[in-house]
Amino acid sequence: MIVYVETNFFLELAFMQEQHESCEQILSVCESGRAQLVVPAFCFLEAYEKLDRNDITRRDFAEKLKLELNQLRRSVAHRSKAETFQQVSDLLIINSENEKRMFSEVRQRILNAAEVISWSKDVILAVTPTQLSRTDAVVFASILHHHTITTPAKSCFISRDQHFKIQML
Protein backbone atom coordinates (compact mmCIF):
# COMPACT_ATOMS: atom_id res chain seq x y z
CA MET A 1 0.00 0.00 0.00
CA ILE A 2 1.20 3.50 -0.85
CA VAL A 3 0.56 6.23 1.71
CA TYR A 4 0.76 9.70 0.21
CA VAL A 5 1.24 12.58 2.64
CA GLU A 6 1.51 16.31 2.36
CA THR A 7 3.28 19.06 4.31
CA ASN A 8 0.98 18.99 7.32
CA PHE A 9 2.03 15.39 8.03
CA PHE A 10 5.61 16.62 8.41
CA LEU A 11 4.56 19.63 10.51
CA GLU A 12 2.34 17.57 12.82
CA LEU A 13 5.32 15.38 13.67
CA ALA A 14 7.97 18.09 13.83
CA PHE A 15 5.94 20.50 15.97
CA MET A 16 4.09 17.78 17.92
CA GLN A 17 0.72 19.23 17.00
CA GLU A 18 -2.72 17.76 17.71
CA GLN A 19 -2.48 14.87 15.23
CA HIS A 20 1.17 13.96 15.80
CA GLU A 21 0.36 10.63 17.46
CA SER A 22 -1.62 9.44 14.43
CA CYS A 23 1.15 10.63 12.12
CA GLU A 24 3.70 8.82 14.29
CA GLN A 25 1.74 5.58 13.92
CA ILE A 26 1.59 5.99 10.13
CA LEU A 27 5.31 6.77 9.94
CA SER A 28 6.10 3.74 12.11
CA VAL A 29 4.07 1.47 9.80
CA CYS A 30 6.02 2.84 6.82
CA GLU A 31 9.36 2.55 8.62
CA SER A 32 8.60 -1.13 9.30
CA GLY A 33 8.00 -1.71 5.59
CA ARG A 34 4.30 -2.56 5.94
CA ALA A 35 3.40 0.43 3.73
CA GLN A 36 5.30 2.73 1.38
CA LEU A 37 5.42 6.40 2.31
CA VAL A 38 5.46 8.84 -0.62
CA VAL A 39 6.12 12.56 -0.10
CA PRO A 40 6.33 15.31 -2.74
CA ALA A 41 9.69 17.11 -2.56
CA PHE A 42 7.79 20.40 -2.46
CA CYS A 43 6.50 19.47 1.02
CA PHE A 44 10.01 19.75 2.42
CA LEU A 45 10.34 23.27 1.02
CA GLU A 46 6.98 24.24 2.47
CA ALA A 47 7.94 22.80 5.86
CA TYR A 48 11.26 24.70 5.86
CA GLU A 49 9.36 27.90 5.10
CA LYS A 50 7.02 27.30 8.05
CA LEU A 51 9.95 26.59 10.37
CA ASP A 52 11.68 29.80 9.25
CA ARG A 53 8.50 31.89 9.63
CA ASN A 54 7.92 30.53 13.14
CA ASP A 55 11.49 31.30 14.12
CA ILE A 56 11.42 34.85 12.73
CA THR A 57 8.05 35.62 14.31
CA ARG A 58 9.13 34.35 17.72
CA ARG A 59 12.50 36.09 17.66
CA ASP A 60 10.91 39.38 16.59
CA PHE A 61 8.30 39.10 19.33
CA ALA A 62 10.92 38.14 21.93
CA GLU A 63 13.04 41.14 20.94
CA LYS A 64 10.09 43.54 21.23
CA LEU A 65 9.11 41.98 24.54
CA LYS A 66 12.68 42.38 25.79
CA LEU A 67 12.62 46.11 24.98
CA GLU A 68 9.33 46.55 26.82
CA LEU A 69 10.54 44.55 29.79
CA ASN A 70 13.65 46.70 30.03
CA GLN A 71 11.36 49.72 30.34
CA LEU A 72 9.25 48.02 33.00
CA ARG A 73 12.36 47.07 35.00
CA ARG A 74 13.11 50.76 35.39
CA SER A 75 10.05 50.99 37.63
CA VAL A 76 10.41 49.50 41.10
CA ALA A 77 6.67 48.73 41.12
CA HIS A 78 6.89 46.58 37.97
CA ARG A 79 10.34 45.02 38.31
CA SER A 80 9.17 41.65 39.70
CA LYS A 81 6.44 41.35 37.07
CA ALA A 82 8.97 42.09 34.33
CA GLU A 83 11.09 39.17 35.52
CA THR A 84 8.10 36.85 35.20
CA PHE A 85 7.55 37.91 31.60
CA GLN A 86 11.23 37.46 30.82
CA GLN A 87 10.61 33.73 31.23
CA VAL A 88 8.04 33.93 28.42
CA SER A 89 10.60 35.57 26.15
CA ASP A 90 13.16 32.90 27.01
CA LEU A 91 10.59 30.16 26.36
CA LEU A 92 9.95 31.48 22.85
CA ILE A 93 13.64 31.27 21.96
CA ILE A 94 14.07 27.83 23.56
CA ASN A 95 10.97 26.58 21.74
CA SER A 96 12.37 27.72 18.40
CA GLU A 97 15.59 25.83 19.06
CA ASN A 98 13.66 22.71 20.09
CA GLU A 99 11.51 22.94 16.95
CA LYS A 100 14.63 23.11 14.77
CA ARG A 101 16.02 20.00 16.46
CA MET A 102 12.75 18.06 16.18
CA PHE A 103 12.33 19.24 12.58
CA SER A 104 15.74 17.84 11.69
CA GLU A 105 15.01 14.50 13.39
CA VAL A 106 11.60 14.14 11.71
CA ARG A 107 13.02 15.14 8.33
CA GLN A 108 15.63 12.39 8.60
CA ARG A 109 13.06 9.78 9.61
CA ILE A 110 10.79 10.71 6.71
CA LEU A 111 13.70 10.72 4.25
CA ASN A 112 14.77 7.28 5.48
CA ALA A 113 11.26 5.85 5.15
CA ALA A 114 9.87 7.63 2.10
CA GLU A 115 10.07 7.86 -1.62
CA VAL A 116 10.39 11.56 -2.40
CA ILE A 117 8.57 12.65 -5.54
CA SER A 118 10.72 15.03 -7.55
CA TRP A 119 9.41 17.86 -9.63
CA SER A 120 9.16 17.21 -13.32
CA LYS A 121 7.92 18.97 -16.40
CA ASP A 122 4.76 16.84 -16.31
CA VAL A 123 4.05 17.81 -12.70
CA ILE A 124 4.59 21.52 -13.37
CA LEU A 125 2.29 21.38 -16.39
CA ALA A 126 -0.35 19.56 -14.32
CA VAL A 127 -0.55 22.32 -11.70
CA THR A 128 -3.96 23.87 -12.14
CA PRO A 129 -5.00 25.86 -9.09
CA THR A 130 -8.75 25.91 -8.83
CA GLN A 131 -10.12 25.53 -5.31
CA LEU A 132 -6.59 24.75 -4.12
CA SER A 133 -3.90 27.29 -3.33
CA ARG A 134 -0.89 27.24 -5.66
CA THR A 135 1.21 25.37 -3.12
CA ASP A 136 -1.52 22.79 -2.49
CA ALA A 137 -1.98 22.44 -6.25
CA VAL A 138 1.74 21.65 -6.67
CA VAL A 139 1.58 19.02 -3.93
CA PHE A 140 -1.56 17.46 -5.33
CA ALA A 141 -0.26 17.48 -8.92
CA SER A 142 2.86 15.68 -7.70
CA ILE A 143 0.78 13.03 -5.96
CA LEU A 144 -1.60 12.55 -8.88
CA HIS A 145 1.29 12.26 -11.33
CA HIS A 146 3.02 9.64 -9.19
CA HIS A 147 -0.24 7.77 -8.68
CA THR A 148 -0.89 7.76 -12.43
CA ILE A 149 2.53 6.44 -13.39
CA THR A 150 2.76 3.81 -10.62
CA THR A 151 -0.92 2.70 -10.60
CA PRO A 152 -0.70 1.07 -7.16
CA ALA A 153 -3.25 -1.57 -6.20
CA LYS A 154 -3.94 0.27 -2.93
CA SER A 155 -3.18 3.82 -1.93
CA CYS A 156 -4.41 6.56 0.34
CA PHE A 157 -3.74 10.25 0.72
CA ILE A 158 -3.37 11.53 4.28
CA SER A 159 -4.14 15.21 4.74
CA ARG A 160 -5.72 17.45 7.31
CA ASP A 161 -6.12 20.24 4.75
CA GLN A 162 -9.83 20.81 4.09
CA HIS A 163 -9.18 21.79 0.46
CA PHE A 164 -7.91 18.30 -0.39
CA LYS A 165 -11.18 16.72 0.72
CA ILE A 166 -12.70 17.76 -2.59
CA GLN A 167 -10.09 15.74 -4.47
CA MET A 168 -9.81 11.97 -4.39
CA LEU A 169 -7.32 9.53 -5.85
Describe this structure as you would to a colleague:
The protein has a single domain, classed as 5'-nuclease (Rossmann fold), CATH 3.40.50.1010. The protein is elongated. It has helices spanning 7-14, 20-31, 41-73, 79-113, 121-126, 134-150, and strands at 2-5, 36-40, 114-117, 155-158. The longest helix is centred in the middle third of the chain and has 35 residues, at 79-113. With 169 residues, it is α/β, with parallel strands linked by helices. The mean pLDDT is 87. The protein has a four-stranded parallel beta sheet, sandwiched between helices.
The tally of domains stands at: 1
The CATH C-level name is Alpha Beta
The CATH superfamily appears as 5'-nuclease
- Main sheet: strands, sense, barrel: 4 strands, parallel
Which segments are poorly predicted (pLDDT under 50) over 5 or more consecutive residues? none
Structural class: alpha/beta
DSSP, total strands: 4
